[in-house]
C-alpha cells in the first residue's frame, strides 16, 4: 500500500501544486495568498512573525491589540475534487519484455503508482480525492473526500484493483460518471485500446462525456517501450490479453506495418481528444515516474499562471 | 550398401539427426510469446512473409541435416574400414608346400573353412585364394619347381604382415619341412595359428648333425682374407646355418706347438672344414685332420709348399695303407723320397685302385669369364676328405673374387654340396611346438645390406598395393568431404541472407 509511493518520486514532486487549469469557483483558493474570506476558509493558527513572511499575511488587527506581529494562518477547505479513474481491464496487465532497461511494471502497476502520488499531492493540498477503478470484472469506487484518513482509504482501494475483463460500457458506470461531472480535475489513466471499436462504449466517448465547464479532464495514455519500439526479433507469437487471440508472425516482417498502424491510431486518438477538449498526456511506463510527473506538473503550473 | 545394413552400430549416430529436427520443430511451433494490449495493430501484417521465412528455415534444416549425415558417414567410414576386416578376422595363409603335399581330405576341410574366410597364397606375391582354387590346386610337375616356390616362409609372412590388416589372425597352413623355416623368424603384430601338415620325411634321417665346425688357419699378414672370410661366415651363420662355428687360428701358433697336443690342434681335429691360408708348410695337425676326413681349402696358385705336402700325404696314405700313425711319423722322412702326386697317378694308373682313380681327377668348380679355373676340388680316396684349391688369394691384389657378392653364395654352396648333413637337415621335420617356439624368438638385425634394400622396395610395393585397394573408398571419402563443405557454404550464405534481410528492415525503420 505504502509501496505505491516511491520516495524518490515524492521528493521530486511534493512541493509542486497539483493545479487545476480550469478557473472555476473555489479554484483560486489554493493560489491566492491574501486574506481569505470566502467559503471554506478556516482559521488555523497564529504564529509569530518571522523575517521573510509577507507583510500582507500579518494580522494587523492583532498587532493593534497586542503590539506584536502575528501571522495568521488559515486552512483551506477546498471543494475541488480530484478524480482518479483507472482503467483496470485485462490489457492493462501488459508490460515490456522485449527491451532491457525497463522497470518491469505493468501498465496497471504504473497507474497505481501514478494515482497514489497524485492522491498524496491532492490530499496535501486539501483537495478531495476520489478513486474509480473500471473494468467489467471489478469496479472500485471511492467518493471524493479529503483528509488523511480518506487518503489511506484511497491507497487501500488502489491496492485492491486487479486487471481483468474489459472496459465497462457507459451505461453500467453512469452513476459514477454522474458524480464526477460536478466539478473537478479528472485523470483518466488507460491505454485507450478498444475491446470493440464499434459503438458508443468507446473509452474516448465515455471520457468525453465527463467534459464540461467545471471539469478538467486529462487523459493519460500509457504506453510501453515494446509498443513504441517493437524491437522484437525472429518468430513471434502475440497474444491479445483481453481477447486471448493469438497471432504467429515474423517480427521483422510485421514491424513496419505495426508501427504504421500504431502511429495512425495515436494520431487519431490525439485528434479526437483535442476536438473534445480533453488534455492528452502520453506516458511511457518504462521511463522513471518522477521525471514524467515533474515535467507534467511544471507544464501545468505554467499554463495556470 | 551391404555394409550399411551389416553394421548397425554406427547407425546410432544417425539418431543425432533428430536433434536439429527437434530444434527446428520446437522453434517453429512456439515462437516467442508476447502479450500485447491489442491486436489491432497487427491487422495489416501479411502472413505470406512468414511462409518465406519458413521456407528458408526448412532449407537451412535440410542443409544442416545433410551436413550431419555426411559428417557421420565420414566418421563411420573409419569404423567401416576396420570392421570389414574385423569381420573376417581370420586370414588363412596357405603355403604352396601345404597345397602340394596335403591330401584331398585336407583340402576339402580347408575349403569348407575358406567359404567365410579370406585366404592368401603364402608366397611373395600373396595371391588371394578362394576355396575352389584350393580344391583345384595342381601339384607342380617337377620337384625343382616346388623348390623354387618354397620361398623362405618368413619373408612371405613378413609380406603378409604389411599388406594385410593389423587386427587379423593368421592361420598359416604349411608342412613341417624344416626347409621352410630357414632364416630369421619375423616379429609381426598379428597372432599366428599354425596348421602344420604332418609330412613324413621322404628320406630316412641321417645321423644327427651337430653343425659345421670351420677352422681357419691364417698367416699373420693375411688380415684381409681373415676379414673377408669372417664376414662371409657370419652372414652364412645368420642366414642359413645357425649351428656353424668358426675358429681362427694363427699359423705361427700351430708351428710352435707342433708336437704337443694343444687346444688348437684339438679344434682342428674336430673341424669339418679347414681353411688353410698360409704360405708355410702345413703342420702335422693339418695333415692329420685331412686324414680324418676334413675338407681342406687352401689358396694361392703358387703355394707350392702345400701342394707339395699334399702330394706327399696322399702318397703316404696309399703307401701306408691308411695307417695314420705311420703317416705321421714318416711324413717328414719320406717327403723327398716319395714321388709326386702326378707320378703316383701315373704309377697307379696301371694297376692301382680302379674305383678310386677317377675321383682323384681335380674337378673344376668355378671359372672366370675367360674360362680360367679359379677353384677346383679334389676328392681323396677312401677318406671323406676333399681338398679345394683356390687359385688365388682372398686379397684384392690377387683377385676380386672375395669382394664379389656371389662369393658368399659360392662359399655356401661349397659348404653344402657333397655334404648330406645340411640337406638332411633341411629335410628334417619340425614339430608344431618347435615351430611355435620359433616365433617367440627376437628378430635379429638384418645382416646384409641387400636385405634391407629388399625390405625397402618391398614396403614400397606394399603401400602401393594398399593405395590401390583404398582407392574406391577414398573417392567416397572425398565426395563426402566435398558435400560437407558445399553444404556448409550454402548454409552460411542462406543464414547470412536471412540475417541481412532482417538488418535491412531495421535500417529502413530507423530511416523513418
The CATH class of the largest domain in chain A is identified as Alpha Beta
Number of strands of chain A: 10
If you consult CATH, what is the topology of the largest domain in chain A? Rossmann fold
Q: Classify the beta-strand content of chain A into a percent band.
A: 15-25%
SSE succession of chain A: HEHEEHEEHHEHEHEEHEH
Question: How would you sum up this structure, described in words?
Answer:
The complex is a heterodimer of chains A (305) and B (512). Chain A is α/β, with parallel strands linked by helices and 305 residues long. Chain A folds into 2 domains: 2-21 and 78-304, Rossmann fold (3-Layer(aba) Sandwich); 41-76, no CATH class. Chain A has helices at 7-13, 60-66, 107-125, 148-159, 174-180, 203-210, 225-229, 251-275, 289-304; strands at 41-48, 70-76, 81-87, 128-134, 139-145, 184-190, 215-223, 235-240, 246-250, 279-284. The longest helix of chain A is centred in the C-terminal third of the chain and has 25 residues, at 251-275. The two termini of chain A are 34 Å apart. With 512 residues, chain B is an alpha/beta fold. Chain B has helices spanning 2-6, 18-30, 48-87, 96-101, 104-114, 131-135, 143-149, 153-163, 223-239, 251-256, 263-270, 284-291, 304-319, 324-334, 341-351, 406-416, 420-427, 432-439, 449-469, 471-511; strands spanning 32-36, 90-94, 118-121, 128-129, 169-175, 192-197, 213-218, 245-250, 273-277, 295-299, 363-367, 373-379, 386-390. In chain B, the strands form 2 sheets. A 7-stranded mixed beta sheet of chain B has the order 8-7-9-10-13-12-11, sandwiched between helices. A 5-stranded mixed beta sheet of chain B has the order 4-3-2-5-6. In chain B, helix 2 (18-30) runs antiparallel to helix 3, helix 11 runs parallel beside helix 12 (284-291) and helix 13 crosses helix 14 (324-334). At the A-B interface, strand 8, strand 9 and helix 8 of A face helix 2, strand 1, helix 3 and helix 20 of B. Strand 8 (235-240) of chain A pairs parallel with strand 1 of chain B, so a sheet runs across the interface.
Amino acid at each position: 500500500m505504502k509501496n505505491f509511493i516511491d520516495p524518490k518520486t515524492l521528493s521530486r514532486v511534493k512541493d509542486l501544486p497539483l493545479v487545476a487549469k480550469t478557473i472555476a469557483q473555489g479554484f483560486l483558493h489554493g493560489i491566492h495568498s491574501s486574506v481569505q474570506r470566502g467559503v471554506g476558509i478556516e482559521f488555523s493558527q497564529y504564529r509569530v512573525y518571522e523575517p521573510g513572511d509577507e507583510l500582507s499575511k500579518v494580522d494587523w488587527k492583532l498587532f493593534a491589540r497586542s503590539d506584536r506581529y502575528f501571522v495568521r494562518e488559515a486552512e483551506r477547505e477546498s471543494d475541488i475534487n480530484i478524480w482518479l479513474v483507472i482503467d483496470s481491464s485485462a490489457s492493462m496487465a501488459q508490460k515490456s519484455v522485449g527491451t532491457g532497461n525497463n522497470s518491469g511494471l505493468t501498465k496497471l502497476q504504473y497507474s497505481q503508482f501514478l494515482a497514489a502520488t497524485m492522491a498524496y499531492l491532492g490530499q496535501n493540498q486539501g483537495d478531495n480525492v476520489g478513486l474509480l477503478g473500471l473494468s467489467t470484472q471489478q469496479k472500485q469506487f471511492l467518493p471524493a473526500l479529503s483528509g488523511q484518513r480518506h487518503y489511506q482509504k484511497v491507497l487501500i482501494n488502489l491496492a485492491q484493483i486487479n486487471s481483468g475483463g474489459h472496459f465497462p460500457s457507459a451505461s453500467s458506470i453512469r452513476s459514477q460518471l454522474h458524480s464526477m461531472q460536478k466539478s473537478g480535475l479528472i485523470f483518466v489513466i488507460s491505454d485507450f485500446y478498444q475491446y470493440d471499436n464499434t459503438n458508443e462504449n468507446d473509452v474516448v466517448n465515455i471520457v468525453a462525456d465527463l467534459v464540461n465547464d467545471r471539469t478538467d479532464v486529462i487523459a493519460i495514455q500509457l504506453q510501453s517501450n515494446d509498443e513504441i519500439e517493437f524491437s522484437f526479433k525472429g518468430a513471434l507469437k502475440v497474444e491479445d490479453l483481453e481477447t486471448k487471440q493469438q497471432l504467429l508472425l515474423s517480427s521483422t516482417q510485421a514491424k513496419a506495418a505495426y508501427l504504421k498502424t500504431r502511429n495512425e491510431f495515436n494520431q487519431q486518438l490525439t485528434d479526437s481528444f483535442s476536438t473534445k477538449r480533453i488534455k492528452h498526456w502520453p506516458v511511457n511506463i518504462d521511463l522513471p515516474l518522477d521525471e514524467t510527473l515533474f515535467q507534467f506538473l511544471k507544464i501545468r503550473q505554467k499554463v495556470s499562471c | 550398401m551391404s555394409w550399411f545394413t551389416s553394421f548397425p552400430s554406427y547407425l546410432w549416430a544417425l539418431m543425432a539427426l533428430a536433434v536439429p529436427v527437434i530444434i527446428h520443430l520446437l522453434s517453429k511451433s512456439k515462437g516467442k510469446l508476447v502479450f500485447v494490449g491489442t491486436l489491432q495493430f497487427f491487422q495489416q501484417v501479411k502472413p505470406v512473409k512468414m511462409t518465406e521465412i519458413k521456407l528458408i528455415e526448412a532449407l537451412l534444416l535440410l542443409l544442416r541435416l545433410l551436413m550431419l549425415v555426411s559428417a557421420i558417414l565420414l566418421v563411420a567410414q573409419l569404423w567401416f574400414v576396420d570392421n570389414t576386416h574385423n569381420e573376417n578376422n581370420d586370414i588363412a595363409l596357405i603355403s604352396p608346400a601345404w597345397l602340394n603335399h596335403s591330401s584331398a581330405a585336407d583340402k576339402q576341410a580347408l575349403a569348407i573353412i575358406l567359404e567365410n574366410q579370406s585366404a592368401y597364397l603364402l608366397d611373395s606375391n600373396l595371391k588371394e585364394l578362394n576355396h575352389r582354387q584350393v580344391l583345384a590346386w595342381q601339384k607342380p610337375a617337377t620337384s625343382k619347381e616346388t623348390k623354387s616356390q618354397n620361398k623362405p616362409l618368413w619373408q612371405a609372412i613378413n609380406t603378409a604382415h604389411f599388406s594385410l590388416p593389423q587386427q587379423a589372425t593368421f592361420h598359416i597352413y604349411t608342412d613341417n619341412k624344416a626347409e621352410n623355416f630357414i632364416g630369421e623368424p619375423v616379429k609381426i603384430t598379428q597372432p599366428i595359428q599354425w596348421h602344420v601338415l604332418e609330412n613324413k620325411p621322404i628320406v630316412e634321417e641321417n645321423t644327427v648333425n651337430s653343425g659345421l665346425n670351420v677352422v681357419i688357419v691364417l698367416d699373420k699378414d693375411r688380415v684381409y682374407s681373415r676379414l673377408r672370410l669372417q664376414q662371409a661366415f657370419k652372414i652364412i651363420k645368420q642366414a642359413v646355418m645357425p649351428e656353424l662355428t668358426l675358429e681362427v687360428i694363427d699359423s705361427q701358433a700351430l708351428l710352435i706347438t707342433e708336437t704337443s697336443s694343444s687346444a688348437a690342434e684339438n679344434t682342428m681335429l674336430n673341424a669339418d672344414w679347414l681353411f688353410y691360408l698360409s704360405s708355410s708348410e702345413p703342420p702335422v695337425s693339418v695333415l692329420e685332420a685331412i686324414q680324418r676326413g676334413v675338407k681342406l681349402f687352401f689358396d694361392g696358385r703358387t703355394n707350392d709348399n702345400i701342394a707339395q705336402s699334399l702330394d706327399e700325404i696322399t702318397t703316404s696314405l696309399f703307401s701306408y695303407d691308411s695307417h695314420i700313425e705311420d703317416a705321421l711319423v714318416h711324413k717328414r722322412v719320406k717327403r723327398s723320397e716319395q714321388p709326386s702326386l702326378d707320378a703316383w697317378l701315373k704309377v697307379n694308373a696301371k694297376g692301382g685302385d680302379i674305383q678310386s682313380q677317377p675321383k682323384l681327377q681335380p674337378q673344376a668348380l668355378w671359372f672366370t669369364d675367360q674360362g680360367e679355373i679359379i677353384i677346383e676340388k679334389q676328392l681323396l680316396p677312401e677318406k671323406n676328405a676333399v681338398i679345394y684349391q683356390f687359385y688365388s688369394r682372398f686379397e684384392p691384389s690377387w683377385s676380386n673374387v672375395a669382394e664379389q657378392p656371389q662369393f658368399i653364395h659360392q662359399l655356401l654352396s661349397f659348404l653344402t654340396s657333397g655334404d648330406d648333413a645340411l640337406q638332411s637337415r633341411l629335410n628334417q621335420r619340425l614339430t608344431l611346438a618347435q615351430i611355435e617356439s620359433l616365433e617367440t624368438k627376437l628378430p635379429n638385425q638384418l645382416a646384409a645390406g641387400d636385405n634391407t634394400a629388399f625390405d625397402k622396395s618391398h614396403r614400397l610395393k606394399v603401400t602401393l598395393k594398399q593405395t590401390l585397394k583404398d582407392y574406391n573408398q577414398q573417392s567416397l571419402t572425398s565426395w563426402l568431404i566435398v558435400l560437407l563443405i558445399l553444404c556448409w557454404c550454402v548454409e552460411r550464405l542462406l543464414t547470412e541472407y536471412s540475417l541481412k534481410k532482417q538488418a535491412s528492415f531495421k535500417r529502413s525503420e530507423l530511416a523513418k
